[in-house]
Amino acid sequence: MAKPVILTVDDDPNVLSAVARDLRRRYAEQYRIVRADSGAAALEATRELRQRGEAVALFLADQRMPGMSGVEFLAQAMPIFPQARRALLTAYADTEAAIQAINSAAVHYYLLKPWDPPEEQLYPVLDDLLEEWQASHSPIFEGIRLLGHRWSPEAHALKDFLARNHVPYLYFDLETDPQARELLEQYGQPEPKLPLVRLVDGRWLVAPTVAELADQAGLLRQAAQTHYDLAIVGGGPAGLAAAVYGASEGLRTVLIEREAPGGQAGTSSRIENYLGFPSGLSGGDLARRAVAQARRFGVEILSPVEVVGMRIDGPYRFLQLNDGSEISTFAVVVAVGLSYRKLDAPGIEQLTGAGVYYGASLTEALSCQAQPVFIVGAGNSAGQAAIYLAEYAERVIMLVRGDSLGAKMSQYLVDRIEASLNIEVRLNSTVSAVHGSAHVEAVTVRAPDGGEERCPAAALFIFTGAMPCTGWLTEIVHLDRQGFIPTGPQVFEEGRRPKGWDVDREPFLLESSVPGIFVVGDARAGSVKRVASAVGEGSIAVQFVHQHLARLR
Ligand SMILES: Cc1cc2nc3c(=O)[nH]c(=O)nc-3n(C[C@H](O)[C@H](O)[C@H](O)COP(=O)(O)OP(=O)(O)OC[C@H]3O[C@@H](n4cnc5c(N)ncnc54)[C@H](O)[C@@H]3O)c2cc1C
User: Fold this and answer.
1) Is 173 helix (H, G, I), strand (E, B) or coil?
2) Which pLDDT belongs to residue 150?
3) Which end of the chain is less enclosed by CB atoms within 10 A, N or C?
């Protein structure tokens, strides 16, 4: 296999050779460095590479070039190698153009000239971009093959699980994909139960559960130790941040996640307001980076494993897992976040997973191609999903219970929805029924005047009010009426410490009504429901964990 290419373009021969020299110094072992002295020459080289079947990992283009600017080149190169990372080299005076380019040419990063020393100004950024490219690029597929019916809820559950856990897989749809038949023939038995999975080593799994597939896909589901300094429940942004800080500061740390690391944020198609990522990043990407960081510091991540209860014995907190085992720890960080409230209308329950999805099921976007889809909800998550799905679906219809879109949604999303040609917003409207035998075929919409209309639909994505996942803690810590967990000063009852508080100190800021049980992120009473605040709380909580542990020893 030819090495993937880094293509750099600059009309100034001195700058071009300086860039090429620095690129070679760091990347020559893994990548072939190709140079071009104009936008037109770079475009020609790009087309040739495509024809020869080579892969481009990164374009690095100077902005100021006669004839074709860097942004113009990157915009034209994008459809030829859509997965390649695009970086712009700019002078300080061109910063404005570079920021515009983030939107117009989907540029991933801009670098300022000069980039000396490259160890600080160039390589960290390019390392990051190349790592992202590697994560999305699979030259020869060596992952799991999954075969199923397009609208099967079981196949959807397996696909969703593999995608969210970043396990490489290929999906073969029995109805539409000719290769699916070939795979079925390789299995050799007539009419097996579906979905059918072929593992990397050639073994087959017939209609496996998510847990069976997780075991075979090499995901860790059993704790390696019986006791930890810190156990974190939930692997969303808050839990992952606590894990990174805990382990990096020397605590023996385990993180237990019931679905896939990333949490709600992991289902987001594009997070645009997270500090340091001017062109936004997908939730999947954020989760992948955070998991890699946590593992590097030695965090043990158990997934998919659910914590179903907790018991307390002196300074020990025992987490009870859904396989019946227990993990002992001195401190617990509860980072269980929220999950969507179920919507109640005829047809919804039967068709969940077969066209009805709670939250943004990004894996299903392709199957909605050129068909109408409905979204229920008007929060930021619904807005993001509408924009994402509009790239695939023929039409996206948003059903909003209230009388304005902007009441709960950020203005930048409202603006994009209003500017989109294939997103329709219906205010004061709800779903009163969902129809279909094997999968969603239509939804009935109730209009503000009470009238009902049956509309064809390929899918319904539900984003209605979310609830904290704290049911398993009812008997352990104080919960408020909505199930959120009060912490710090909120746990005082009429100015007194909570009942059963057995240590001689006040509760720490993020501590629940039980010493050593901390709560962070969306499940905490009064929390700001944002990625950055969840990450912040996860990091801060570890300081209190240290103080709690110090008093135990
Ligand atoms: C589609 C979407 C888009 C969003 N976009 C943005 C955005 O652009 N910007 C922004 O700032 N915010 C955004 N948000 C909000 C943001 O994602 C949340 O505020 C953030 O994820 C909260 O983090 P958390 O770690 O507290 O909880 P969560 O992300 O909810 O993670 C909690 C985790 O705990 C796990 N869990 C729950 N119970 C258990 C249990 N008993 N045992 C084991 N594991 C358990 C869950 O499976 C989950 O993975 C978005 C949310 C959604 C749904």
Assistant:
1) strand
2) 82
3) C
CA-CA distance, 459 to 153, in Å (whole number)?
A: 13
**Separation between Cα atoms, residue 335 and residue 207, nearest integer Å:** 32
Atom of ligand 1 nearest to the CA of 522: 26
CB burial readout 421-441, b (16+ within 10 A) else e: eebebeeebbbeebbbeebbb
pLDDT for position 138: 61
Q: Which token pair is 23?
A: 């690129």
Cβ of 273 below 6 Å from ligand 1: yes
N residues, the chain = 553
**C-alpha distance across the termini of the chain, in Å:** 57
Name which residue sits closest to atom 22 of ligand 1, judged by CA: 522
Residue 85's contacts (CB-CB under 8 Å, 6 or more residues apart) are 57, 58, 59, 108, 109, 129, 130, 132, 133
Place of tokens 């699979």: 138
Give, as one character, the DSSP assignment of residue 472: G
Look up residue 490 and give its DSSP letter: G
Closest CA to 244 of 4, 541, 459: 541
Query: pLDDT (tens digit, 9 = 90+) per residue, 456-509?
Result: 999 999 998 889 999 999 999 999 999 999 999 999 988 889 988 989 899 999
Question: Which atom of ligand 1 is nearest to 267's Cα?
Answer: 1
Q: Is 324 left (phi over 0), alpha (psi -120 to 50) or beta?
A: left
- Beta strand ranges found along 109-213 (DSSP E): 109-112, 144-148, 169-173, 196-198, 204-206
CA of 527 to the centre of ligand 1 (A): 12
Out of 281, 336, 341, 527, mutate this one to test ligand 1's pocket (max ligand atoms within 8 Å of CB): namely: 336
pLDDT at position 278: 83
Going from the Cα of 345 to the center of ligand 1, the distance in angstroms, rounded, reads 26
Which strand (E) or helix (H) includes residue 212? helix 210-216
Average pLDDT, the chain: 92
Q: Which of 531, 535, 537 to mutate to test the pocket of ligand 1 (most atoms within 8 A of CB)?
A: 531
Per-residue confidence band for 533, with pLDDT thresholds at 50, 70 and 90: very high
The residues that bridge with 311 in the sheet, in sequence order, are 318
Question: Does the CB atom of residue 471 touch ligand 1 within 6 A?
Answer: no
Residue 386 structure tokens = 């509408």
Distance 466 CA to ligand 1 centre (A): 10
Provide DSSP, 21-34.
HHHHHHHTTT-EEE
How much is the average pLDDT of 424-437? 96
Residue 281 CB less than 6 A away from ligand 1? no
Q: Is the pLDDT of residue 140 over 60?
A: no
Q: For ligand 1, what atom is nearest to the CA of residue 272? A: 8
In this prediction the pTM is 0.80
Residue 343 · residue 374 · CB < 8 Å: no
- SS3 for 459? strand
Residue-wise pLDDT tens digits, 90-109: 988 888 888 877 777 788 98
Point out the ligand 1 atom lying closest to the alpha carbon of residue 240: 25
Closest ligand 1 atom to Cα of 259: 47
